[in-house]
UniProtKB/TrEMBL annotation:
The modification 4-aspartylphosphate is found at residue 65. This is Two-component system response regulator PilR (NtrC family). It comes from Rhodocyclus tenuis (Rhodospirillum tenue). GO terms for molecular function: ATP binding; sequence-specific DNA binding. Keywords: ATP-binding, DNA-binding, Nucleotide-binding, Phosphoprotein, Transcription, Transcription regulation. Residues 148-374 form the Sigma-54 factor interaction domain. The lineage of its organism: Bacteria, Pseudomonadati, Pseudomonadota, Betaproteobacteria, Rhodocyclales. Residues 16-130 form the Response regulatory domain. GO terms for biological process: phosphorelay signal transduction system; regulation of DNA-templated transcription. Pfam families: AAA_lid_14, HTH_8, Response_reg, Sigma54_activat. The keyword Transcription applies.
């Protein structure tokens, strides 16, 4: 097969795919497979030819090899990202070249295929790419309706990134403080991705007892252990075709991290008690409020798994860095809480919220408003209804320092602030706050009493 423009077939409204590969037999294989799927393909053998096709046509998908005679496939990925962002592009990488695949995903590739190309995988990839919504414009509106609210530059950037990530199959690591919207962002990525018809399965990795982890994640066969009286599917099976959201991923024990890495690499799962592995197609989005890189440095998280999960990082900004969004969030949350009959918010209360540091982020704002709505008089939320932790104000937090107090007073103030922040973060749940602070429940209770903290 020659690789010039003459090769283009006449086509009606068939979806078009641009194939870029310098090997004639691979071009032919791809061309034929796409034709059988009811698609039409243009084939290019070089970066220059691909550029020519792209300038002349709109494509529903581009499949490109990574090594081309006059350049790298990644150039095409970048060019498409800049000039033709509606076209998903997938790269074909040499066998075992994970780094290339990761580089392409980071540069904006939708997905990758490893050589030798497995036709089943190719068909799956093509179907996913063609089921993507054609316009990215729709996502911003959709993200707003999905409640990722805010007009600040920081949250606008997050929405934009969510839009781009929804058009990719890359693993995403969502970082950010507790309550900053990590799960909300992960749900949005899934909802606007080619996987949206399949389930989004959220898993709190910190909440599963260690001895049950393997069977919960991978399922088990009847008779695998006492009590296994029938076959059961795990989280991976439940998320097949969809997205598995690994929340608090830093809490996974090391042994489980090894098993997870294997599943991600092999794209296969073996149930507990089974002899064969089953192929599994799952996109992984992970998150933790901790600094995952720190966990790697301390040896608590495997570096190889870290790089597998953190192909692209989405950073959720803390609420205190986007104070301008508070009025909008307050209005939307009060409306939701009030369910048709929302209380009003006094300007002084809004001012108090606008200068508060929100250690528990949007979740804390929700809790504060829910409590205030229930307790306020005359359906008007006043500053005293908010019960803001007094030391949680920004100016005070920034000021820090000793201010002429004795060492004991200083220590008490620091302790008090840490406790108040932990209580606020956990919606005043003492057990959870104690866990967050790394002290026992009894120790926390004693400190609360000693410092005269009122909840
Ligand atoms: N930008 C936002 N607009 C509206 N609501 C938001 C926004 N961000 C977060 N929320 C709301 O705040 C709450 C906490 O969000 P979410 O559970 O996504 O946070 P998280 O970062 O995953 O928390 P954690 O670290 O504790 O798991 C949810 O009820 C969510 O709907």
């Amino acid at each position: 097969m020659s690789v010039n423009r003459v090769e283009r077939r006449p086509r009606g409204e068939l979806p078009r795919v641009l194939v870029v590969d310098d090997e004639a037999d691979i071009r032919e294989l791809l061309d034929l497979t796409l034709l059988r799927m009811g698609l039409t393909a243009d084939c290019a053998g070089t970066v220059a030819e691909a550029k020519g096709f792209l300038a002349a046509e709109r494509y529903q998908l581009c499949l490109t090899d990574m090594r081309l005679p006059d350049g790298e496939g990644i150039e095409i990925v970048r060019l498409i990202g800049e000039r033709y962002p509606e076209t998903p592009v997938a790269v074909i990488t040499a066998f075992g070249s994970t780094e290339n695949a990761v580089a392409a995903l980071k540069a904006g590739a939708f997905d990758y295929l490893a050589k030798p190309v497995a036709l089943e995988q190719l068909r799956g990839l093509v179907k996913s790419a063609l089921s993507l919504p054609q316009s990215r414009q729709t996502l911003d509106a959709a993200a707003r309706s999905g409640n990722l609210l805010g007009e600040s530059p920081a949250i606008t950037q997050v929405r934009d990134m969510v839009g781009r990530l929804a058009r990719s199959q890359a693993p995403v690591y969502v970082s950010g403080e507790s309550g900053s919207g990590k799960e909300l962002a992960a749900r949005l990525i899934h909802r606007h991705s080619a996987r949206s018809a399949a389930p989004f399965v959220p898993v709190n990795c910190g909440a599963i007892p260690e001895n049950l982890m393997e069977s919960e994640f991978f399922g088990y066969r009847k008779g695998a252990f006492t009590g296994a009286d029938s076959d059961r599917e795990g989280f991976f099976h439940a998320a097949h075709g969809g997205t598995l959201f690994l929340d608090e991923v830093a809490d996974l024990p090391l042994l489980m991290q090894v098993k997870l890495l294997r599943v991600i690499q092999e794209k296969k799962v073996r149930r507990v008690g089974a002899t064969v592995e089953e192929p599994i197609d799952v996109r992984i989005i992970s998150a933790t409020h901790r600094n995952l890189k720190d966990c790697v440095d301390k040896g608590a998280f495997r570096e190889d798994l870290y790089w597998r999960l953190n192909v692209i990082e989405l950073k959720m900004p803390p609420l205190r860095e986007r104070h301008e969004d508070i009025p909008l969030l307050v209005a939307a949350l009060v409306e939701r809480i009030g369910d048709g009959n929302p209380p009003r918010v006094a300007p002084e209360a809004l001012h108090a919220l606008s200068t508060y540091s929100f250690p528990g982020n949007v979740r804390e704002l929700e809790n504060i408003l829910e409590r205030a709505s229930a307790l306020c008089a005359d359906a008007l939320i006043r500053p005293e209804d908010l019960h803001l932790a007094p030391t949680g104000h920004c100016d005070e937090a920034v000021e820090g320092g000793r201010r002429g107090e004795t060492l004991d007073q200083h220590m008490d103030r620091v302790e008090r602030q840490a406790i108040l922040e932990a209580l606020a973060k956990t919606g005043f749940n003492r057990t959870a706050a104690a866990r967050l602070l790394g002290v026992t429940f009894r120790s926390l209770r004693y400190r609360i009493e000693r410092l005269g903290i009122e909840e």
